[in-house]
Amino acid sequence: VQVEESGGGLVQPGGSLTLSCVASGFIFHIYNGNWYRQAPGKQREIIASISRGGSADYADSVKGRFTISRNDNEMTMYLQMNNLQPEDTGVYYCNAHLASTDFWGRGTQVTVSS
Length: 114
Prior knowledge:
Distance between the termini: 37 Å
Low-confidence stretches: none
Strand content: over 45%
Helix content: under 10%
Number of helices: 0
Oligomer: single chain
Structural class: mainly beta
Largest sheet: 7 strands, mixed
Mean pLDDT: 97
Shape: globular
């Protein structure tokens, strides 16, 4: 079982990034997908969710700026992030969740700074 994020990096305020999460070793399409963020000195928080049916939900802090999507054929989940701000800085984690089972990636760093 593996979940691996990519696409993080350094971006200026107002910029965009797209994170990818590739899953393997389990039946990805029956899992709900989530993106979490852990800002420096803060607890990990959920910022975007997508159900196995494709319904999306967002934290207020990212609503209107971030878009979560999934491609079950490619066992991949995405997080399109627009109008990034310094407060979006943190480590972004991919999570696949079903009942009491969770699979996590190791995270990818996003830094928003001028």
